Amino acid sequence: QDNGGLSLSGQPLSLFLLPQTLTLTLTHARRLVTCILSVSLARANGNSFAHRGELRQAKRIVVKLGSAVVTRGDECGLALGRLASVVEQVAMLQNQGREMMIVTSGAVAFGKQRLRHEILLSQSVRQALHSGQNQLKDMSVPVLEARACAAAGQSGLMALYEAMFTQYSTCTAQVLVTNLDFHDDQKRQNLNSTLQELLRMNIVPIINTNDAVVPPPEPNSDLQGVNVISIKDNDSLAARLAVEMKADLLIALSDVEGLYDSPPESDDAKLIDIFYPGDQQSITYGTKSRVGLGGMEAKVKAALWALQGGTSVVIANGTHPKVTGHVITDIVEGKKVGTFFSEVKPAGPTVEQQTEMARNSGRTLAALHPDQRGVIICHLADLLVEKKEEILAANKTDMDLAANLSSALLNRLSLSPAKLNSLAIGLRQIAVASQDSVGRVLRRTRVAHNLELEQITVPIGVLLVIFEARPDCLPQVSALAIASGNALLAKGGKEAANTNRVLHELTQEALDIHGVKEAVQLVSTREEVEDLCRLDKMIDLIIPRGSSELVRNIQRAAKSIPVLGHSEGICHIYVDSEAAIDKVIKIVRDSKCDYPAACNAMETLLVHRDILRTTLFDQIIDMLRTERVKIHAGPRFASYLTFSPSEVKSLRTEYGDLECCIEVVDSMQEAIDHIHRYGSSHTDVIVTENEDTAEQFLQQLDSACVFWNASSRFADGYRFGLGAEVGISTARIHARGPVGLEGLLTTKWVLRGDGHTAADFSEHGTLKYLHENLPVTQPQPRQMTAQRED
User: Fold this and answer.
1) What sign for the dihedral angle of Cα 536, 537, 540, 543?
2) CA angle 524-526-532, nearest 5°?
3) Is the dihedral of CA 246, 251, 254, 259 positive or negative?
4) What pLDDT score does 509 carry?
5) Locate the Aldehyde dehydrogenase domain: which residues (predicted)?
6) Max Cα–Cα distance, the chain, nearest Å
7) How far is CA 281 from CA 261, 262, 284, 404, 521, in A?
8) For residue 764, with 0-12 CB atoms within 10 Å meaning exposed, 13-18 middle and 19 or more buried, which class applies?
């Protein structure tokens, strides 16, 4: 509040609103103002950010570069490549309007390199003068005093920083400090004033302890209460400086990924994503880094001191070659990098804890008898019908909040009694199919006498299913995960938050029948999809359900986890010259108009040249117009018309609405070539009465689903009799087409022997391989019962 007008950061609020070309409802305007004010007021009151996502709001940032980041592995000289990448990121953030400060190590290492060089050069000259010989004796370098190295290295280190930042038109200034500069009020005010003025002039201050004059650090003098922190290393210096300058964020880069719950070198060490002030008693510290004065304990103490002073802190790895080039910008963008220190502890478990709970409970689920898993699924199906009023009420809340979404997204978001009944039927189909899923013997081989090998089906492990505004997806994939014995981590779109919450509660109620309630987890925290895709040690398969943009983003982000799905559903229908009129009209109408937003809806209609200007073609156009389908003309089709519809911008377009492209081809082979070039290998259809033509199309076309005289909408797990599907895959391996129960299983080999060794089958061994195929027999499933077992 300034002179009666609302302002943020000294600017009128009007400057923070959207351009006038956009229309903002009063509700949205209030939400926007509330969001901006909540972050700004929190910072104004000296509170640190509560969540990683808020780090994007950080204005003043301190970057602390540990000795291990700045120096080479031999500790004599600087790691120029890492330093250059840090400079680039800092300059980029500075040019975005942020105020950047660097607390750097490296003067001692740089000076050590210079002094060693000078000493070796001096020794070689003296030896040459005294001996008169060209051959030099072995020379040893004396132990160099650290303060002398710092004095020799400071100027060179600063000159290097200045040269690097100049490449980005960024000015720098050197500031050397000691403990006295913070403990003496006048000196502290002078330092604050100097730094404020440098930041005001858009200069990056580069700060270091004046190691040429600083006394040796006193043991156990890291922290001296709440208001004082002793500057004994660059960790404490960075923390003190960040609080003194009221920085929003302190990024401490070292040679470890972040804070672990035990020493990083131990086998069971786990990286802590978010660290809370009350958690320090539950961790064990390892040794300090290879160089520098501080260890992880010093970093944590300094971080907690800065956090208490109102500055958010992230400790991360600045030496990893794959992430160094973007680690700072990733942190500022709110990505899950390193350990984030927060004073706000969420009420529920972290996503890592959810994944661990799901995996442990999932193993118990996989060990259940098939009929027990079937009972769980049948109970969930019953709950969908019994609790439909509660589900629909939650869905109505979501629909009301999402009134500004497109019609296609609203269709996906909406639930109805008919949809719930259809879901229940599909779930019961899955329950029946689950009877012979896990543990099914695929192959039996007698390797040798009393040595038998079996290949059996087993769950994949932990599935991560990410879906947008599709709440019906949650019970479907939950049932498939239960039937296949997999643990499930479900991440739904915020548009369906209320519906997903109710459906997840019902799912856990059904799972609790056999004590495996935690096997299905709903991720409702602020986790970014990209962060979830990095949990490669916890998640075994990612299945995206949503827009092509979502799928592509996940495929790019999940570098170490397999992704099952398709990025686009560009489905074609080819109308052959020998097609029957009634079948064409029915199939095209159903494929395009039944559910235009579906991934198996027709997007391109290919017509044989011979049917142009025929009654059949006229009826197709009339039907599409009646159904209010917007037509885009392909290049060849447009050339036949005097007044054509709008020409298509791309033949590789998924409209997801009442729109389609029409293109002309000369033959069935040309239709196949067109589909291979512009399609997405999802679902493609031929309509013809010529069986030979149809069979050629079915055999030659390389798509996950290929149909003859049937709607593309049949590409669905439920319609295939799979009960439901987790998605449609256009991949070449593991699973393709609608992925149901079978696609969520893998296999393992079980070998039963009697003291056999590989040496027994060697050239001088006593046994020989038989490799006889044995008949496969399956255990008879017990009769399913719907009674609860307490």
Assistant:
1) negative
2) 85
3) positive
4) 97
5) 350-614
6) 109
7) 10, 12, 8, 48, 29
8) exposed
3-state secondary structure of 755: coil
Q: Residue 346 contacts by C-beta under 8 Å, 6 or more apart in sequence?
A: 525
Instruction: Give the Cβ contact number of residue 117 at 10 Å.
Output: 13
Structure tokens at 744: 């969520």
Count Cα neighbours of 340 within 13 Å in the Cβ-side half-sphere. Answer: 25
Q: Can you tell me the distance from the alpha carbon of 45 to that of 379, in angstroms, rounded to the nearest whole number?
A: 51
The helix/strand count (H/E) of the chain reads as 24, 26
d(CA 467, CA 486): 18
Q: What angle is formed at CA 361 by the lines to CA 355 and CA 364, rounded to 5 degrees? A: 145
Q: Is 19 exposed, middle or buried (0-12, 13-18, 19+ CB in 10 A)?
A: exposed
Cα–Cα distance measured from residue 241 to residue 62, given in angstroms and rounded to the nearest whole number: 8
Cβ contact 374:432 at 8 Å: yes
- DSSP string over 442-454: EEEEEEETTEEEE
Q: Which two tokens stand for residue 599?
A: 């991934």
> Residue written as tokens 């490296």?
106
Q: What pLDDT score was predicted for residue 788?
A: 37
Q: State how far the Cα of 536 lies from the Cα of 548, in Å rounded to an integer.
A: 23
Cβ neighbourhood burial of 477 (10 Å; 0-12, 13-18, 19+): buried
- Angle 97-100-106 from CA coordinates, rounded to 5°: 150
Q: What pLDDT, in 10s, does the model give residues 388-404?
A: 999 999 999 999 998 88
Instruction: List helix spans (H) across 61-169.
Output: 67-70, 80-95, 107-131, 146-166
SS3 202: coil
The whole-angstrom separation of Cα 323 and Cα 335 is 12
Instruction: State which amino acid sits at residue 48.
Output: S
Q: Which residues of 486-540 form beta strands (DSSP E)?
A: 487-491, 520-522
CA distance 661 to 654: 10
Judged by DSSP in three states, 73 sits in: coil
d(C-alpha 223, C-alpha 303), whole Å: 11
pLDDT at 292: 43
Residue 12, Cα to own-chain centre: how many angstroms?
37
Closest CA to 251 of 208, 293, 302: 302
Q: What is the pLDDT of residue 151?
A: 81
296, with CB counted inside 10 A (0-12, 13-18, 19+), is buried
- Spatial distance between the Cα atoms of 576 and 365, rounded to a whole number of angstroms: 50
Residues 6+ positions from 692 with CB-CB distance below 8 Å: none
Decide if 415 contacts 395 (C-beta within 8 A).
yes
Distances (CA, A) of 646 to 121, 630, 632, 661: 78, 9, 5, 10
Residue (of 229, 228, 231) closest to 214 by Cα position: 231
Helices (H), 340-387: 351-367, 370-386
Count the Cβ atoms, other than its own, within 10 Å of residue 186: 8
The CA distance from 664 to 393, in Å, is: 48
Which residues in the chain land under pLDDT 50? Answer: 1-44, 136-137, 219-229, 289-294, 782-790
Q: In what order do the strands lie in the sheet with 683-687?
A: 630-633, 659-665, 602-608, 571-575, 683-687, 705-708
pTM of the model: 0.74
Transcribe 599-663 into DSSP letters: TTSEEEEEEEGGGTTSHHHHHHHHHHHHTT-EEEE-HHHHHT-SS--PBPS-SS----SSEEEEE
Residues contacting 381, CB < 8 A, separation 6+? 423, 424, 425, 427, 428, 431, 479
Q: Is the Cβ–Cβ distance between 726 and 739 less than 8 Å?
A: yes
